[in-house]
Design goal:
heterodimer; A: 101 residues; alpha/beta; five-stranded mixed β-sheet; globular; B: 137 residues; alpha+beta; five-stranded antiparallel β-sheet; 4 helices; 5 strands
Chain lengths: 101, 137
């Protein structure tokens, strides 16, 4: 596994699938991809293929969650695995973000 | 013979984070610890090493892990070796405001949440060590 890699695929309009690692090295790529989507409508971020995420990745997600909320829309986190959910619980973010299976 | 300590110096770039994480996570796994413990170690190193890189970009940082003589514990240390910068990585994110989700300083909060203890020491040579005690299962 080349775990420094982050792949971002647009699998349908306003639905992104991210695979690999979201850390300080790759967070900017995710930020760019989300920003490109704009805030006009909900966005789903499919996290089921994430291998690792830390606070740098969470920061991008939370920032964009807030931007969408400000616009009256939602960022939906799809299929977060156990480690992602655990990190959301540790940081107290689980109840603030929109999660779906 | 089981290796009781590993350490390595990394270039102060985010591109080295994966190697730093793997160094310690693999060491923890080699100690017979659970996958969960190994993944927690990976997270701890990621947060501390990211702080080191953002604290002093382009300056080396060092990572060490040591199995202590105590029960099931591993000490993880990340040493920052440069002068503090303006931390551009942090500056990209908006400051916290009332009623919004705080985004800053979650990294160290995560480390505190998953470890037994966290200590910081400023050394005579100007380096700064953050040492975490991880209880392994």
């Amino acid at each position: 596994m080349n775990a420094s890699r982050l792949s971002i695929d647009e699998i349908s309009p306003r639905e992104l699938r991210v695979s690999g690692v979201i850390d300080a090295h790759t967070a900017e790529a995710l930020e760019t991809a989300l920003t490109r989507q704009g805030t006009d409508g909900d966005i789903t971020l499919d996290l089921r293929s994430i291998d690792f995420i830390d606070s740098s990745g969470l920061r991008v997600i939370v920032t964009f969650h807030q931007q969408l909320s400000d616009a009256g829309n939602r960022l939906v986190l799809g299929g977060p695995n156990e480690s992602v959910i655990k990190l959301l619980e540790i940081t107290g973010l689980r109840d603030h973000l929109h999660l779906t299976e | 013979m089981l290796v009781r300590r590993v350490s390595r110096t990394f270039a102060g770039r985010t591109g080295t984070l994966e190697s730093a994480r793997s160094l310690v996570a693999d060491f923890v796994a080699e100690q017979g610890a659970s996958t969960e413990s190994s993944e927690i170690a990976r997270l701890i190193v990621s947060e501390l090493a990211t702080n080191a890189v953002e604290f002093a970009p382009d300056t080396d940082y060092a990572v060490a892990a040591e199995r202590t003589g105590e029960a099931e514990q591993i000490l993880i240390t990340v040493r920052s070796m440069g002068e503090p910068s303006d931390v551009p990585g942090h500056g990209r994110f908006p400051a916290d405001t009332e009623g919004r989700i705080a985004t800053r300083h979650r990294g160290l909060a995560i480390v505190h949440a998953v470890s037994e203890s966290v200590s910081t020491s400023a050394n005579d040579d100007g380096t700064i060590d953050i040492t975490v005690v991880l209880a392994i299962t």
